[in-house]
Fold this sequence. Notes:
Blueprint: E1 15-17, E2 29-31, E3 33-38, H1 42-55, E4 61-68, H2 80-87, E5 103-106, H3 109-113, E6 118-121, H4 128-135, E7 144-147, E8 152-155, E9 158-161, H5 162-170, E10 173-178, H6 183-187, E11 192-197, H7 202-212, E12 217-222, H8 225-247, H9 252-273, H10 285-297, H11 299-309, H12 316-324, H13 331-345, H14 352-361, H15 380-384
Parallel strand pairs: 3-4, 3-6, 4-5, 6-7, 7-10, 11-12
Antiparallel strand pairs: 1-2, 8-9, 10-11
Helix pairs in contact: 4-5, 8-9, 8-10, 8-11, 8-13, 8-14, 10-11, 11-12, 13-14
The structure holds 1,4-dihydronicotinamide adenine dinucleotide (NAI) and 1,3-dihydroxyacetonephosphate.
Keywords: NAD, Oxidoreductase
Domain Glycerol-3-phosphate dehydrogenase NAD-dependent N-terminal: 34-202
Active site: 235
Amino acid sequence: MAPVPQKQQLEGEETIPEKDSSSSNSHEVLMKSKVTVVGSGNWGSVAAKLIASNTIKLSSFHDEVRMWVFEETLPTGEKLTEVINRTNENVKYLPGIKLGKNVVADPDLEHAVKDASMLVFVTPHQFMEGICRRLVGKIKGDVQAISLIKGMEVKMEGPCMISTLISEKLGINCCVLMGANIANEIAVEKFSEATVGYREDKEVAERWVRLFSTPYFLVSAVQDVEGVELCGTLKNVVAIGAGLVDGLEMGNNTKAAIMRIGLREMRAFSKLMFSSVRDSTFFESCGVADLITTCLGGRNRKVAEAFAKNGGKRCFDELEAELLQGQKLQGVSTAKEVYEVLSHRGWLELFPLFTTVHEICIGRLPPSAIVEYSEHTPKFSLVEGSAQYY
Length: 390
Ligand SMILES: NC(=O)C1=CN([C@@H]2O[C@H](COP(=O)(O)OP(=O)(O)OC[C@H]3O[C@@H](n4cnc5c(N)ncnc54)[C@H](O)[C@@H]3O)[C@@H](O)[C@H]2O)C=CC1
Ligand SMILES: O=C(CO)COP(=O)(O)O
């Protein structure tokens, strides 16, 4: 193997050879990074497990992975962090799965991030603004971040992706990792793929790829942060549509139609928001593959199915609490956020699926409207007629 040029060592940084010769570059000498995972839900816990299985093998990372836990008291009266650290399991959000002895649960956000050089953000998106506020001035200056969060915020100026929120509030570079990644399947090490989106620094992206890749979790990188992140965010809205179709027992053809129309709207919306978004991104794991898996087996699908079965009489919040027991849906709030953007720009008619999903979620339309076109609902032909957006 050809020798790899060594990176220039910065003051105070250790350089050590890789622990494992099977790592991507056995002779590579890298600066040792300390990883903190901010979040510990269903996917957050699996991400910590994946990362911990690599930091223990690769000498360019410290073994320990700190995982910030939004503290809660379990029905037994114990604190969740104490139980995670005693049993090595997140008994609430990922029961039955050992996280790795090098995962340390920490209820103190500032303490958890203090020494980190790599921050992995993976909380439900609605909590990120508050988390960022708490982190201002609390992290190291040269830290790199990655967001696994599927969602966005809507500001007066327009939509703000979560990676942008992190970058702007904390003044750090932020990549994204999205993909067809139902957490419970990856937890039991079933094969899947994921996509890292990066802005400019390919070397940083490759470091994230090394941190996450395992034989059962294949990660590739593309230079399209917004495209990757919008794929992960918008497919949750389509998954609500797919769940409604399931609840109405309309069958596979209808669900496939919703997925196809949804994919078109995902691409159109993404390109209208960011002209840099690449078509090829939609063929990565973060695109069509995530759309398919979420529409087949995700939580958004599941809760929307129950919503339709109940004829829209029980609201999403109530069904979410009952069916997900603390886990959070992203699709309903994302549908609202997308609707706000579309409405503000006068584009509602160009996105009939996104628009209809939101109007069903808030009870303005019945679940059956997902496939009904009346005077009051936008027509799919309008999208066909707006080919310039596609
Ligand atoms: N679960 C999955 O299969 C996948 C999830 N994702 C994405 O990852 C992100 C995180 O999802 P999960 O880890 O599954 O979380 P989750 O859906 O299991 O959410 C529950 C988490 O939110 C925390 N929480 C509750 N209230 C909070 C508060 N006020 N402040 C901060 N945290 C609070 C809980 O402690 C818990 O850790 C989401 O954007 C999701 O779309 C992405 C791929 C797969
Ligand atoms: O993002 C996911 C799979 O990649 C999980 O989707 P749900 O939140 O609908 O379960």
